[in-house]
Amino acid sequence: MTDTSASTTLYERLGAGDGIAAVVDSLYRHIIGDETLAPFFEGTDMVEQKRHMALFLAVATGGPNGYRGRDIDAAHAGRGITDADFDRVIGHAATALAEAGVDDETIQTVAGALLPLRDQVVADASAA
Ligand code: HEM
Fold it and tell me: What is the CATH number of the domain that holds 17?
């Protein structure tokens, strides 16, 4: 976790599969503890959800490509997710990373990798 050389992938800086699994666990603890966000996951199998999120984050951070879930657009279509909901999830992700001991620069890099997904996650205002 201390090697921040340019050749180290973000995936490795996060502690690879085990590190990401721990962050994802903490992320969903924060999400389910947030009364604004919890209702979105009422019918969700959280074990599968965590597994898919961890595999998705592995690919997104330069790790192995084991993600077999839906694409991000399809997974979130029709759920009515707002910009504010998206910002709350990113906030919880930053908290979960900080709690795992990830440094600020790396947290910013992870956030920078997730922010471009906003348009695929947030409901199209014209369709709402
Ligand atoms: C960068 C932000 C996000 C990423 C990377 C992300 C990633 C994912 C992934 C990988 C899945 C699994 C897809 C599958 O199983 O095929 C998923 C499903 C889901 N996400 Fe997200 N998500 C993000 C933001 C959000 C936000 C902001 C919300 C709502 C507030 C949300 C709510 C959901 C729900 C409800 C599901 C489906 C659960 C189910 O199948 O029951 N996501 N997301």
Answer: 1.10.490.10
Distance 116 CA to ligand 1 centre (A): 14
**Is residue 48 domain-resident?**
yes
Q: What is the pLDDT of residues 76-93, one digit of tens each?
A: 999 999 999 999 999 999
Which residues span the domain enclosing 115?
A: 11-127
Whether the CB of 32 sits within 6 Å of ligand 1: no
CA of 24 to the centre of ligand 1 (A): 12
- Pairwise CA distance, residues 39 & 57, whole Å: 23
**Quick check: is 98 in a domain?**
yes
- Ligand 1: does its nearest atom lie under 6 Å from the Cβ of 121? yes
**pLDDT single digits (tens) 36-72:** 999 999 999 999 999 999 999 999 999 999 999 999 9
Angle at 75 (CA atoms; ends 64, 123), nearest 5 degrees: 125
